[in-house]
Amino acid sequence: MARLALNLAFYTGDPYPDLVHLGQRAEESGFDWLMVPEGIEANDAMLCCYILATATSRVRIATNVANIYLREPSLCAVAAATIQQASQGRFILGIGPSHRPVLQGLGIEMGNARDHLRKYTIGLRRSFSGERAKSLGIRFPHPAEPVPIYFGALTLETVRMAGEMADGLLLVHCTAQRLSQVIGAARDSARSHGRRPDIVTVATSAQVYLHEDIRLAKEAARAGMALYMGLPYYNRLLRLSGFEAEADAGAKAWEKGDRTALAAAASDRLLDAITLYGPASRCRERLEALAATGVDVIGIMPGAVGGEDPLFSVKRCLAALAPR
Questions:
Q1: Which pTM value belongs to this model?
Q2: In CATH, which of 3.40.190.10, 3.20.20.30, 3.30.70.330, 3.30.70.360 is domain 3-212+278-321?
């Protein structure tokens, strides 16, 4: 059975102590990982992971994912090493390039994102080795355990690059078929680069809208997909996963800035394939279906239903879907 992770989004507006308490509850309830998504002008995933590292003792803690355009590699490496020391070897550095429209809004030119990710990873490895610090006459703070580097990946090209040079993958919005494809591609790539085929840990996350009223939960899932229907990288992922009509409708709605149409573009077929919604029993069945692909870790991303408090939705998912 795949290990289970809880995504804790520190951009709900709730006080940090409340979210840290949820992380502690997740650890006590048997979750294996805590994942921290990062949102521009909302939270710093690295800082949040440090806070969780000091408040827990067993769970692994991962950035899901840290934006490589906002952090110089050597500074990111020092922060990661610090968190690894604080967590006593439980930290995972998940990195990715974010999205072109997001970066453009910050005045950042993305360029070739995959090339940047490759160069960034090489820079991290140099810092972790102490090579860069030594050249400056200082010492890098080596943790007892090395810091694993995971790639946030939406394309098979990035998956294959992870097979070449990363320790793991962080995925999202994957159908069971897509997951099987990704796992195969990662293993084949690792093998072709002289690495063990199982060297790359594969983790995926799925949005969860838990509620006894399945109709209400489904509409919450549809609304929650609105942003993902429009952002180009996610839109491309959906297209490659067999949702061409939905991707086309989402792209058109994004161009018009029509959020209602963005949500409407998420068909029932799409929601059934990539989200979990409805009663706990139904959500557990979907988790089992994802686990059957051979994925190593499944992260749940709790979503609010019917205008409820987001923090309440996290608590409900934590209680209902904790490992048994």
A1: 0.96
A2: 3.20.20.30
